[in-house]
Amino acid sequence: MPVPQVDYEKRNVHPERLEAIRKYAGRSVLDVGCGNGAYVLKLAGEYDMKGVDARPYGPWTGKPSHFSTYDGFHLNEPDQSVDTILCFEVLEHLEDPFRILKECYRVCRKNVILTVPNCDVTPAMEKSFMVYSHWIDRSHRHFYEMRSITAQVEEAGFRVAASRYINKVSLMPLMLEMLGLNGSGAWVRAASKFFSIFQKKPYFLTCLVVGEKRSFV
């Protein structure tokens, strides 16, 4: 079965990541691995925003001066030149993610805000032979759960100021399929709300971590 791939040309701004930016970011922000530049284009009027990625993307033409490319190893920015670095769904793809984290530490004055796919398979998932799709994404070289990503952030020199799971998984499609039901609309929304009342164990796709420079604290 083919694994669904993220279309980075069309990736949208995610509300929980946007909330973290507005809560923790400083005035100047560098989005490392920015893809189509959705966050740069969205927030350019609120922050001093720049984005870098390994290759250019079509939407960059909207604000070409805000974007540049990098080699995946070195950020072409001076030491302590921006307040905050964003690194959303990037580290798992890199040959040497720790090297980029150290680069983030060098370049930022305040903090890094990052997300990685949550690869923490629970005992019940394991017994049911179920895993998150990113476990079998061939573009992923590294697999994190909250403990391992926070440890790597700290090893790079940051203090973990905040960490939480985002992207809660909806089990409704699975439940409907198990029951042989199809449909959409009000009754599905009602069933989803009813099911959520009884669901005690949430499942999340993503780990979000904010790492502060110790010199800033």
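Above is the first protein from milestone M3; the second protein from the same milestone is given next.
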Amino acid sequence: MKIKQHFILNSILVLLLLSVNNLLSIDNNINKILAEEILISTKDLPEFKTDIHSKESEGNQISGVVRAIFQDKKGIMCFGTQNGFQCLINGELFLFDIKDKFGKGITIKAIKQDSKGNLWIGHSAGLTKYDGEYFYNYTTDEGLISNDVWCVEVDSEDKVWIGTLEGLCIFDGVEFSRLDIPESIIDSTKGISSTKIIHSINKDSKNNIWIATNGGAYIYNSKELKNISETDGLCNNYVNSIIEDKNNNIWFATAHNGLCVYDGEKFIKLEILNNFRNKEIWNIFETKSGNILFSVKGEGVYSYNGKTIIKYNEENGLNSHAIMCIFQDNKNRIWFGGMKGVFRLENDKIINIKRNGPW
């Protein structure tokens, strides 16, 4: 009897050790690439265009399409583009030529940083961690829910939240886990959509996680998941972007009915923010001074200071009607990225930033 019990205990220990080894082996199996080996000066690359078939020059832009702009803790500006991951290093723009498992280029859609300084990069071929020396690529082979990553957020515990075309998962540095979001409706007006797509993920000042979907917004407080939809006063269930402002109001940018604001108890209607021709809002951002910036499809970018609105478009140098990301750097300069490259707002003027700057 004792021999049998001893055998069972040993078997359990072996299984536990195998399980632990499997969890720990995720870092050993992933694609690890030395950053220096894939570093290319953009000076040596052909011109990037919005349409690769276009024969006309678009002015040596950073990229034909820029999906994400970020500045890390060291002050390095990073750009997520349809041509890959680019960084401004010592005044020169470089491309880290990350490839998918088939050797093809990728489109970067999100960039965030954790407390240890690691950059987490979401793209069309999975999730990548950059520690300043190496790139570590994670795909469905390691447990990622989908290789088509649309958004990334890092919470207060350095867990990485990954929104994909096929739902949401969380990476704690060892393994991926799934947070099931109810399926919604495909947005037939979009070229790419699904019933599970996650458009954006944002943490608020209380460490709640806000999730934008085609079925409204979801808030997760580490214990329960709550849906906020049109039945609660949300202006549209197709939510593209969510932010919390300095007064703890939650702003929602929607695909089909403009903007709305939630004060924690009720939705506030700000008619002045919805008096534009197109109701499709792509991105929303709060500046350090408290201005709300939001991009409208086909129209440019609006800035709202609580009373009045300023519009930035072709008339003042913003030569793109499709701004997909907005960012403010440590010099308080405002950056816009989207179709036709990168633009910067300085002293009420818009400057087109190309590969050679001006930086």
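Note on the second protein: The chain has a mean pLDDT of 91.
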